Every structure is written in structure tokens, then in C-alpha cells.
Write the C-alpha cells for this entry.
Amino acid sequence: MRVLDWIRGRASQLLDDREAIAWMVLVAVVYGSATFVRSQASGNWGTDHMMSLASNLLVGRSDLTSAQLTTINDIVDIGDRHYQAMSLLPTLPYLPLVPFPVLWPFSRWIVSAAIGIAGGWLALPLARRYGPGGEADWWLASLGAFGTLLFTLTIEGNFYYLAHLEALLLSFLALIEWHDRRRPWVMGLLIGLAALARPTLLVVAVPFGLALLVEAKDRVEDRVEAWVGIAVAFALPILGALAVTGWWDWVRFGSPLETGYGIAWITGPLEALRDQGLFSTTHVPTNLALFIGGGYTVRDAFPWLVPSNQGQSILLTTPALLIAVGATLRERLNLVLWGAVILTAIPVFLYYGGGGADTYGYRYAMDFVPFLLALVAIALRDRFGNLERALIGLSLFFVCYGYAWQVWK
């Protein structure tokens, strides 16, 4: 009954908030229309690996048959079985579609659009909580929904990108929870689920967990008892997510410590990089150079600018994230958010895969973009002028260009 009462209360709040309803309609229409246009341009309507895997899971199989393979990238062959080297969470949204085979060819677009739209919806409540209010919140919401790779990843209908969409959605929810109630078990659950999509996000448990313990010291006299309660409530969902990940890897690869990425088939150039280490300092200079300076070449046909196949500089996709440097380190909230950004960036830049091949923008940076967006919102409390508007406007332009490239390339 409490759950139903909570749903009724939230629904009543939403019905009274016409601006939020208008925002939700706008996001749904733009994302839905853009996904439809992209799907028509792609012509890629076959059942993808996640849909095939979801149907197999319901009959007790964790592998793909030879007939279900549409690519051999990131496939681990063990005997006569084929396994997709990927975390578990991207498969789960496909499960409701399993009883409807007629929808399987469209599942990639349906699932990605649904998760992406939900993420876009949350951009407004996130902006309202961390931003200065008024007009600035709408600029911030537009940046989150239409000025980041959330938009370009959504419209691709790609199960690889779905992991990023899920992680961003859960990170937005965690940031909203952090602003509102900061319940340790809810934060632990959201971080654990985000790690089931993108394991790199497990590291954000460190700054948020430490902040919860520090705040408990400030609030109560019996610190030890409070710390134990918070630590248990926060850690249990995260440990549960780790257990699920270990079980999933053990079922497929025979070891809870084998993710499959180190033994999966990949192209020759990527294999040469992987041989230097899945995560290695040798990858950092190249990754940072791409993150800061990756750009475009030129061709003589629309849309003229050709994005680098390995990804682009964050300055050429979402330059508005530079506003985050205005969020100083004097406040505890800012320290927590900067800690989440830095810790998440470490495995991203150590990874052998660059920015994410064949992707517009630096896809892997989306792991820490939600926390940067919160920092941008905080920075706008002190200054919201023409420069900030221009940077957000440029971000919207670059993302729109990414959409044009994806449709007309």
C-alpha cells in the first residue's frame, strides 16, 4: 500500500506541474521522432544480440546460437557455445518483449528510445535541484537532454550504447536522491545497478559512501552505531550487485573474475592495444589526446565535417561541461561530485578502447558526465551570463550535428 500511495502522490505532483508535463512531451516527441528517422536511415531491423539473449535467458540459456550471431565482435567462444562479453543489465529491458516476436526486429530501437527518453525526462528535475532556478534550469535541462551524447547514443538503437543510457539514467536518479533524502540503501542500490550496466561506476561508491559517514558524524552522538548502520545499508546493495556480476561471469566463463573482455574476439588493431593491457597507463596519453583534441576531417558532401572514427574531443561535443570548473572545492557537495568525476575518469582513460570506436563523441566519458552536469548546475548559481549560454548553445549545436552525421553519413 505504501508503494501505491507513493505512486499516487508522485502522479498528483506531476499533474500539478504543467511545465514538467510539457518537458516530458517535448523530450518524448523529439527523441521518438529522431529515433524513427535514424532507424529508417539505418535500415538495420534485424534482431540484435540482446534480444536473442533475452529470449534464450527465459529458457535457461546464457549463450547465443550460431544462427543468432550477427557479429563476431566481443564474442567469447567456449567449445561450441558463443557468449556476448557484456554486463547483465543491458539484456534485462528486452525481457518484456520476448513474448512478442513481431517486435523483435524493432526491439533495439524501442528499448534504447525508452531508456533514453527516461534519462531526458530526468534532466529537468536534476536541473531544478542543483541549478540556480528560473531560466537557467531550462538551459541546464536542455543541456542534459539535447546537449550531451545521451541524445546521439539513444537514437542509434545499439545495445552497446544501451549500457551507457542505463548508467546515465541511474546516475541521474542517484544525484536526485542525494539532493533530496540521501538514504544510504537507496544510494547503494542505485550505484550497484549502475555498476551492473557500466562496472566503472562502482568507484563512485567511495566519495558518496565517505560523505554519508562524515555527515553521520556531524548529526549524531553515537557515531559508531550510526556508521555501522549506514555502512551496512549502503554496502549491502553494492555487494549484491557484485555478487550478481560474479555469478553472471561464472555462468558464462567459469570464473566470477572473468568478464570476457580479455578473451573475446576483436579486430586486429584493438587486439594489439588489448595485449598491452585491458587497463594500462600506456593507453592514457592516446586517450587523453583524443578526449581533448580529437576532431574532424572534411569531405565535399553534406554534412561536410567527418567526425573522427575513434571519437571527438569533449570540447567539440559538449563544451558547456567547462562551466563545471566554476564549482569550487570549498563545499562538501562539490568535493563529492569532483571525487566521483575523477575516480570514474581513471578507468575510462586507462581502458584500451579509446573513446569507443565508431561513435560520435567520446562515448566512455558518459560514465562521469552526469556528475559534471551537476557541477555545471552548481557553478551556474554564481554566474549565468552570455558565455554560459553560448557554451550550452554550442553543445546543442554539436549534438545536433552528431545527429545529422548519424542520419546522413
In short: The two ends are 52 Å apart (CA to CA). The chain has one domain: 2-264+276-408. The first strand starts at residue 75 and ends at 78. The first helix runs from residue 2 to 15.
